[in-house]
Amino acid sequence: MDKLLHDFALLLPGFMTTVWLTVLTLVMGLPLAVVIAVGLRSRSRWLTIPLIVVIEVIRGMPALVTLYFVYYGLPAADVVLNDTLSICAAFGLTFVAYTAPFLSAAIASVPRQHIEAGDALGLSRWTVTTRIVLPQAIRASLPPLISWTVILFQGTALASVVGASDLFARATSLGAQQFAYTYYIVLAAVLYAGLSIPFLALAARVQRRRGGRGLRDAMRSRVRPSKAAPA
Asked: For residue range 46-95, what is the model confidence (pLDDT) as tens digits?
């Protein structure tokens, strides 16, 4: 048991790096996802079509390709970021590409009457969007947002290919030093699961408490655009 605890302690720095990469990517990516989601509800095709094209291109690329493109491609274009920011920017792009569409659908699910009530009170469009539309949309999107955060957390293992000292990199390094790859990979898997499973359970609980209303309304809004909240 003492050896097991000692070995988990050896993985702890990598685990904390993985958590830090996840948190920093969320801080960078979630606000951008919200902005793009609002943009996707715009009536202007000059705005929505480029956004859709960019989203589909990013979604069509493996996350590893996006990581290589940002990590190695940006310096070639004289855009220099440190290693952590490059990794988080790449993961953030993938996160935004997958979360912005369902955030946009959640925005469309906000009842039109709520928006009209804000207009009737003389609230500005900015206030209506930030105080009425977005809070309801984010609440409706919580289960998939939590699920995608878990996917992001697990996906940070890709950062090891560009030299990040994350949990997976730490496990493989220790495995190579002690000729015990499987042992340390299993320990790393336990740490990944130890944080992932509670958050997935939280997402399921939130979804049950909402009775699936947010997702159903969001999906209905995709075929009834007339209920969309104006950008």
From this structure: 999 999 999 999 999 999 999 999 999 888 888 888 889 999 999 999 99
Token pair, residue 175, equals: 């495995």
| 3-class SS of residue 180 | coil
At residue 122, what are phi and psi to the nearest 5 degrees?
Answer: 80, 20
Q: Where are the domains of the chain?
A: 2-227
In eight-state DSSP terms, residue 167 is H
What is the CATH T-level fold of the domain 2-227, as seen in this structure?
A: MetI-like fold (1.10.3720)
Q: Are 87 and 17 in contact (CB under 8 A)?
A: no
d(CA 69, CA 67): 5
Whole-angstrom Cα distance, residue 147 to residue 131? 25
- Report pTM: 0.85
Please report, as a single letter, which amino acid is at residue 170. Answer: R
Angle between helices 213-223 and 83-108 (to 10 degrees): 80
Name which of 214, 173, 164, 170 is nearest 20 in CA terms.
164
**209-226 per-position pLDDT tens digit:** 876 555 455 445 443 443
Neighbours of 167 (CB within 10 A): 30
CB-based contacts of 19, cutoff 8 Å, min separation 6? 153, 195
Q: Which of 117, 129, 118, 116 is nearest to 37 (CA)?
A: 129
Q: Say which residues have a Cβ less than 8 Å from residue 201's Cβ, sequence separation at least 6.
A: none
**Alpha-carbon torsion (60, 62, 67, 72), positive or negative:** negative
Can you read off the two tokens belonging to residue 39?
């943009």
Please state, in angstroms and as integers, the Cα–Cα distance from residue 184 to each residue in 10, 11, 26, 175, 181, following that order.
Answer: 10, 8, 28, 6, 6
